[in-house]
Write a structure and sequence with these properties.
Number of helices: 34
Largest sheet: 2 strands, antiparallel
Radius of gyration: 41 Å
Family: Belongs to the EFR3 family.
Distance between the termini: 110 Å
Shape: elongated
Number of strands: 2
Strand content: under 5%
Protein name: EFR3 homolog Ba (S. cerevisiae)
Helix content: 55-70%
GO biological process, one term: protein localization to plasma membrane
Structural class: mainly alpha
Strand order of the largest sheet: 1-2
Organism: Cyprinus carpio
């Protein structure tokens, strides 16, 4: 009998309950270290004995054999360890294939110990496919005894954890991130993560690991797996999560899906977060025709993931994220109005529930806000421009609604996209108002203040308030009330910057015009006038210089005249306009801190108080409004005289405000399904385009036309220049009176040339 066999036989006692013979085990270990070439034979012989003992149900000797193998593995790290490992894995495999739970757990424990060993030499031919499959199967154990079932499942989880640790960093091993492996590992972990309430913990405490529940162990293993995922492996790790939630209809409940992706987002490296978001968005697209509850669940997960992603980056495709979400809004509106997931109603096999579609729409809008919150100001500005370009405006942009939804579809999409835009602007604080409200954004936004739909007008006002309010002052002007001492508001006011002044110089008249015309809308209610007051107050606090204050006073006085003279307006609208004018002048007088101006406003305060009450009762000032005398109104000439003494522009103050039309005013009529819609839109950009075209033609003429043609076209403006050039140069001796001598010499660089002749 060879010596290695005798040494192996000696470690087994006569009675297996006595356990491993430690003295003989030390001899076997010393022999293996002294003669490493014998390791493979020792392993093969131990494997042979273990197989025989398993077949004979001598489980005590099986445990002794596995303990010996474990000790040999821990002690030997020579180059020939690979051959020994093959015998070891063969024995572990036999234990895992056994029907006895104790043997399966024993084999798993040995494999976990082996997985924690860092081998010195690589292995080119070792395979772990069986172990992935078997451990995954153990994770789904349905053993009758709940305690044993829990132990088997926990053994399966630890086994998968061991496989990952052993293979994830070994380039020579089969890639554990391949779909064939991930499709087994991830669902097995998620299955146990779900069992928090269904599995009872063993009442007998043994070790710290035994006290750990399968759910806790699963979460720790899942986090470790995701934490090891590199950039190229994220997709393979996340896709099985999506498929598991699909297969088990877990999107609708949302709770488990949100929990899973919170684990994913917190476990992966932060720079890879946007890859998870992109996969979720792609999955949302793939489920476009699924029920609204499923889509709402996916959107809820995206919203939660976006908040976590704030520490990372949203990735290079920012607009694609918002494009996907806005597309879902459009589809939801189509589904709600048509009642079908397909373009033809007779093809729709699923019943569409309107209230579920509305919940989905609200979830998408919330998610848009969650994403926007993670963006820096410059990217948020890009998103605002992107969304405003998606809003259908009759005659300017193609309607986003399908042909089956008509005008109602366009209106609903307008409302949804404006709500999304409001979410994007929430908390948006830009130091440069010129970049926050560029012409390309402001013009289409202001056009919506003139639409008949009251909800759309209110959303636009809230959006403007959110952008202009850079010091969180908006809530201090609500509710609308007479303020005797403005210091109680504790307003945060900074000096207007150069950018603020440039913005008001460029856009102020357009803002005033739309505010003035918005006040005349008959469908406006109390909320509209409160928002108009807040907007005017913020303009005065955030953007007002001396010139702007003068224009705002003129606007307020024009609103007072509008309330008194526009008898065609409803009673409530006239009362509300009068209230808006009165309360706003009361605010301005305290901001200007001109005592005589404040005194004039104080004299008219009874009318101011009466006007404010009109916000509450639309009929309270009807009788008074028709009999208002001059002494109880704000008088423009008197205000001009008062403020003129404080350095304000008297001439401008005395001029009544009239809305200026700086562009083309077009009244466009459209007809959708027999319902006429009239939309008044101001095209300032048209004038700018015409001016640019005129300049281009002038430049082209001077570049290509003959000189004679240019001279003839310019006429008298060119002749003096030519005459001055053709005259002989005057004498440098100076000038002689009475025209009898040469005039004073003028250097060429001091000669005045017409602009057209200077390049």
């Amino acid at each position: 009998i060879p010596r290695y066999k005798r040494l192996v036989d000696n470690i087994f006692p006569e009675d297996p309950e006595d356990g491993l013979v430690k003295a003989n085990m030390e001899k076997l270990t010393f022999y293996a270290l002294s003669a490493p070439e014998k390791l493979d034979r020792i392993g093969a012989y131990l494997s042979e004995r273990l197989s025989r003992d398993v077949a004979r149900h001598r489980y005590g000797y099986v445990c002794i054999a596995m303990e010996a193998l474990d000790q040999l593995l821990m002690a030997c790290h020579c180059q020939t360890i690979n051959l020994f490992v093959e015998s070891f894995l063969t024995m572990v495999r036999k234990l895992l294939e056994a029907d006895k739970p104790n043997l399966q757990i024993l084999g798993t424990n040995s494999f976990v110990k082996f997985a924690n060993i860092e081998e010195d030499t690589p292995s080119y031919h070792r395979s772990y496919d069986f172990f992935v499959s078997r451990f995954s199967e153990m994770c789904h154990s349905s053993y009758e005894d709940p305690d044993i079932r829990t132990k088997i499942r926990m053994a399966g989880i630890r086994g998968l954890q061991g496989v990952v640790r052993k293979t994830v960093n070994d380039e020579l091993q089969a890639n554990i991130w391949d779909p064939q492996h991930m499709d087994k590992i991830v669902p097995s972990l998620l299955f146990n993560l779900q069992q928090e309430e269904g599995i009872e913990r063993s009442p007998s405490p043994e070790t710290e690991k035994e006290k750990e529940s399968p759910v806790e162990l699963t979460e720790r293993c899942f986090r470790e797996l995701l934490g090891r995922a590199a950039y190229g492996n994220i997709k393979n790790a996340v896709k099985p999560v999506l498929m598991h939630l699909d297969n088990h209809s877990l999107w609708e409940s949302k709770t488990f899906a949100v929990r899973c992706f919170k684990i994913v987002m917190y476990s992966i490296q932060s720079q890879h977060s946007h890859l998870v978001i992109q996969q979720l968005l792609g999955h949302l697209d793939a489920n476009s025709k699924n029920s609204a509850r499923v889509r709402a669940g996916i959107v809820e997960v995206i919203s939660e993931a976006a908040v976590i992603e704030a520490s990372g980056s949203i990735g290079p495709t920012v607009l694609e994220v918002f494009n996907t979400l806005l597309k879902q809004l459009r589809l939801s509106v189509d589904y709600e109005l048509t009642g079908s997931y397909d373009s033809f109603a007779n093809m729709g096999s699923k019943v569409i529930k309107v209230h579920e579609e509305r919940q989905l729409q609200e979830a998408v809008i919330k998610t848009v806000g969650s994403f926007a919150y993670t963006l820096p100001p410059y990217q948020r500005s890009e998103v605002m421009l992107f969304i405003i370009g998606k809003i259908p405006v009759p005659g300017m942009y193609p309607a986003l609604g399908s042909a089956n939804t008509g005008v109602e579809g366009s209106r609903m999409i307008q409302v949804m996209l404006l709500k999304s835009l409001l979410q994007v602007t929430a908390g948006f604080q830009s130091t440069n108002i010129l970049t926050a409200l560029p012409t390309s954004f402001l013009d289409p936004l202001l056009s919506f203040t003139l639409m008949e739909d009251a909800e759309i007008r209110l959303l636009v006002l809230d959006i403007l308030i959110g952008i202009i309010d850079r010091h969180d002052n908006r809530h201090k002007f609500s509710p609308v009330r007479i303020i005797s001492d403005i210091s109680v508001l504790k307003l945060k006011v900074d000096k207007c910057s150069r950018q603020d002044n440039l913005f008001m110089k460029k856009h102020s008249q357009r803002l005033y015009r739309h505010i003035y015309l918005a006040c005349k809308e008959e469908s406006s209610v109390q909320r509209h006038f409160e928002s108009l007051y807040t907007l005017l107050a913020l303009i005065c606090v955030e953007l007002a210089n001396e010139e702007v204050v003068v224009d705002l006073i003129r606007l307020a006085l024009a609103l007072q005249d509008l309330a008194l003279t526009e008898e065609a307006l409803p009673v409530y609208t006239r009362c509300a306009i009068h209230a808006l004018s009165a309360v706003y002048l009361n605010l301005i007088c305290q901001l200007t801190t001109v005592p005589t101006f404040c005194q004039h406003v104080h004299e008219v305060r009874p009318t101011v108080c009466l006007s404010v009450r009109s916000f509450i009762d639309p009929f309270i000032c009807l009788s008074k409004l028709e009999k208002v005398e001059g002494e109880v109104l704000f008088v423009q000439t008197k205000i001009a005289e008062i403020l003129g003494g404080s350095g304000y522009n008297t001439e401008r103050l005395a001029t009544a405000y009239i809305p200026q039309i700086t562009g083309l005013t077009l009244s466009l009529s459209f007809k959708y399904t027999g319902c006429p819609v009239v939309c008044l839109i101001f095209f300032d950009t048209v004038i700018q385009e015409l001016e640019r075209e005129r300049r281009r033609q002038v430049v082209e003429r001077f570049q290509t036309a003959p000189f004679e043609e240019i001279a003839a076209h310019c006429g008298a403006r060119v002749s003096p220049c030519l005459a001055s050039i053709q005259q002989p140069p005057p004498s440098p001796s100076g000038s002689v009176g009475n025209g009898h001598g040469p005039s004073r010499s003028i250097p060429v660089y001091e000669m005045k040339f017409p602009d057209l002749c200077v390049y």
